[in-house]
């Protein structure tokens, strides 16, 4: 067991060693590591890191009802992904909010796949301070889930198509759209690195001449907004028009970042509420 006693002891034999992380760090270039660090920093800032170990509210209503609420960070998180997940930005967007909330025990789990995860994922975990990555065969997933189900305080999140029951799952199922008024409006290398598996569709006069991995699309800005993309990348001057047209809009300086808009911060806390009649109000 770990210090929190929430992860199974047999996981220890499946943990990636220091040498695996060291080789990955050496395989990722300095500019690519800088992009991962940017994604980590933006995710941390955007998550509003908390210094509170616990919170308590005590409210007495006019009716006499007294409501006492208490919340604390969950003690542990298991972040499960499979070989279909290759984006360091999306990995950090699921992981960092838990760290910012104060979850102290984190286990990353990769199910299936030959060899080790892509080097950028390993570097993202290391830079985030997550030292435990279990490399498990796909058929070990049910065994792990059976153990975690006995510890409901441990939150399970899943990325990609990992076959595990989870409180939340993040999966990129639609293309990403980019609008460029001029060449250089966006750092396209950063987008391609952060979203290496995504379908990337580029629009606008600044997208002329782009080659793979970008697919050139033609049409008006309004046509671009109507495509139903999972996220939009656009110059800052276009963001006001983009809001409400996609769950996520990213601009200059944030091309290597990601945010899961449906990953609620409340998931990372346990909550308890007590009701009683205070006796001071009406009936």
Provide key terms for this protein.
283 residues; alpha/beta; Rossmann fold; 2 domains; five-stranded parallel sheet; 13 strands
Number of strands: 13
CATH superfamily (homologous) name of the largest domain: Nitrogenase molybdenum iron protein domain
Rg, alpha carbons:
22 Å
Main sheet characteristics = 5 strands, parallel
| Average pLDDT reading | 93
Unreliable residue runs: none
Strand content: 15-25%
Q: Number of helical segments? A: 8
**CATH class call of the largest domain:** Alpha Beta
**What is the count of distinct domains?**
2
Task: Report what the structure shows.
With 283 residues, this protein is α/β, with parallel strands linked by helices. The chain has two domains: 176 residues, Nitrogenase molybdenum iron protein domain (Rossmann fold, 3-Layer(aba) Sandwich), CATH 3.40.50; 75 residues. A five-stranded parallel β-sheet has the order 5-4-3-6-7, with helices on both faces. It is globular, with a radius of gyration of 22 Å. The protein contains eight helices and 13 strands. Strand 3, helix 3 and strand 4 form a beta-alpha-beta unit.
